[in-house]
Specification:
mainly alpha; about 0% strand
């Protein structure tokens, strides 16, 4: 009975987020920003500890630099949720470019089947367009969050033991 209530709430939240996609993007961006902010603080503290040790100065400096970058990203995601959607789109672009380059390398290598290289290029181009839409239309990311909520709620309705696997 409790799973049915939680599933219903997830489905309702998913429908709300699909109706108002930015409402789904803002909490994800703020929570991600907060978590990255905490990681940044932890990296800076670890870097300070490493600098205190005689052999860890170089590692400590690198950890502090990485911590500062994480702090900047965390603050940016927390106070500007649109930057989160931009970064997600940018990461998708990078993945697409890697797939396209891998496909070109497979075709140029002329070893094995060239269809794999062509498949990688086609999938890379499709992913490139998805990344383009996510950076220009941030509401798409909110819709994806809403769809995830609906599918999670539906899975809980049809599989009552779903949450038992997580504990």
């Amino acid at each position: 009975m409790q799973n049915m209530g939680i599933a219903s709430i997830l489905i309702i939240l998913g429908l709300i987020v699909i109706a108002f996609p930015i409402l789904g993007l803002v909490p994800v961006a703020v929570l991600s920003g907060f978590l990255i902010l905490m990681v940044g603080i932890g990296l800076i503290l670890a870097g300070i500890k490493e600098i205190g040790e005689s052999e860890g100065a170089i590692l400590g400096i690198r950890l502090i630099i990485l911590g500062i970058i994480a702090l900047i990203l965390g603050i940016g995601f927390t106070f500007n949720p649109a930057s989160f959607a931009w970064l997600v789109g940018f990461i998708i672009w990078i993945i697409a470019l890697f797939l396209i380059i891998e496909g070109i390398i497979r075709i140029l290598a002329k070893t094995g089947d060239n269809r794999c290289g062509l498949k990688d290029i086609i999938i890379g181009i499709i992913i490139l367009f998805v990344g383009l839409y996510l950076t220009n239309y941030t509401w798409l990311l909110g819709i994806l969050v809403g769809l995830w909520l609906i599918t999670s709620g539906t899975r809980m309705l049809y599989n009552p033991g779903f949450l038992k696997n997580w504990t």
